[in-house]
Amino acid sequence: MKNILISLLMIITSCFNLSAQGYQVGADAVDFRLKNVDGTMVSLANFPEAKGFIVIFTCNHCPFSIAYEDRILALDAKYKKLGFPVIAINPNDPGVVPADGYKEMQLRSSEKGFTFPYLFDEGQKIYPIYGATRTPHVFLLQKTDDKLKVAYIGAIDDNSQEPEAVKEKYVENAVNALLAGKTPQPGFTKAIGCTIKAGAK
Description:
The protein has helices at residues 2-20, 63-79, 102-112, 127-130, 170-179, and strands at 34-36, 41-42, 52-57, 86-90, 118-120, 134-135, 137-144, 147-154, 194-195.
């Protein structure tokens, strides 16, 4: 009986750890409904013509996120018209990092001229489902049979601080592969950035 209980406990623990890891490449992603900086509520269902989405968990204060802002704008300019718009989500708790509050998001979006939705993960409900751990952290989604398949997870490219020194444009290569009917290679890279700031539960 004791061995059975131990086995059950190990299975439950294993399942919990698996779910805590978030999505893996090939998983079905959930939609969400989050507040945009313009005050509207946005979900992926609002983009019926899209072929997929470049979902990027990012924020205001992180130096890595700031370093990537122009490159995120460039991704949206290039791929939105091809069916893969950028959807940015701020996962941080403003109680921990006031610079990542909603009003500060509005100001940053206005200052930089963001052309994409910049959504607030109020209550920090979405980023744990996806498994985001850093800012920025990319989840490339592809629409297939009314589902959203995770096609790539990780970094935007291989050089966070020097755009001119980038050798591997991971997200661009992944989207180009999908547009060509191919599987992105690599499908996973390590996200480099600031850790997501979670509030007390």
